[in-house]
Amino acid sequence: MKNDKQSLLKHEGINYLIPFILITFCFALWGFANDITNPMVKAFSKIFRMSVTEGALVQVAFYGGYAVAAFPAAIFIRKYSYKAGILLGLGLYAVGVLMFFPAKLTGNYYPFLLAYLVMTIGLSFLETSANPYILSMGSEQTSTRRLNFAQSFNPLGSIMGMFVAMKFIQARMNPMSTDERALLPPAEFEALKQNDLDVVSTPYLLLGAVIILVFLVIRFAKMPRNHEGGHSINFLPTLKRIFSIPNYREGVIAQFFYIGVQIMAWTFIIQYGTRIFMGEGYGMSEQAAEVLSQRYNIVAMVIFICSRFICTWLMKFVNASRLLTFFAVAGGILTVGVIAFQNIFGLYCLVGVSACMSLMFPTIYGIALKGLGDDAKFGAAGLIMAILGGAVLPPFQARIIDAGTLWGIPAVNLSFVLPLVCFVVILVYGLRSYRRHLG
Fold first, then answer.
1. Quick one: how far is CA 15 from the chain centroid?
2. Burial status of residue 74 (CB atoms within 10 A of its CB: 0-12, 13-18, 19 or more)
3. Of 7, 8, 318, 370, which is least surrounded by CB within 10 A?
4. Considering the entire predicted model, what is its pTM?
5. Cα distance between residue 328 and residue 414, in whole Å
6. More confident residue, 234 or 131
């Protein structure tokens, strides 16, 4: 194992261990942001007495920031360096989370959406820099495995985000249900709303202090440059060149749908579980059902982490495209179970979907960028821009959930037809990239 790590992190006499550790910590930081934010769809819906669709604007703002900043980030990195891109990303990330303080003072929903947008513009810079930087820290032959290994620490941050959301936000918000809040007089509702906004904002403000500390450590650390910075931009010719490559072009499409399925599975598990636990046989209050559903989400993330480490090991023996194909099939089968079962077994299937998603983001990323060389900076931007799938697809699922019941079936079950479509797209990409690998 020791020799295996050395081969992953040492190349041409350069030891990348310390830079790899520092950048990998950033993977955990944006994982925390992703998964403290997913439960906020439900939280903001309650706080502001909104529909699930309106609450899903959190995801539109959060993942929309990735699309806005991805190519500007690539241009910045090409001109300067990966380290500069990471520092700018961390800086904007910190500004975004600290904007929660003025947002809560306004008592309005939309300043929070602006804070999420600024935060994720920073995350876009951070991810556009960090992913290809990890790929460059060693030989190209081990690049996809190396990125899978680094990405394995992303869900550790996600678990922390889920835990903080469950223990310090969901459990501390006023237990009054959405329907009960709707009946409150205006003055009582405003007092309740402000209390809950204080609960929501505090963890984000503490996160800002952690980000500033990480910024300072990386700022003063010695980081390899790997022949980066000072390059001419040639934006349109580069885009035309990389999008003419089928592996890359189709990889951007697959990544769009992968991010969509990930966000839908981890956001709406709260609505899915709440319906079950408030129903017959359980009869829980809305808040208790939400907290228990979040526990299942944490279990899903633990499974996701274990599966990602296992998949990283399996890539020593099995082609990455082949693994991607297998897990897309398995994810699709489990999603059929999520739709078909209207009891706890459907929730078990939804938890199991996380095992199938575990390898998808870094594997699609690595396959799509393979062989791009210096064009990988712009290639990375396209793949980060594809995170827009997390902004586009969840609102459609939310609209279905808001219907309540369709054809006698809970709409939250039927809404998982969208994740099923996503797995089909990923399956097609896995098959096509594997056929190209065979030659």
1. 29
2. buried
3. 318
4. 0.78
5. 19
6. 131
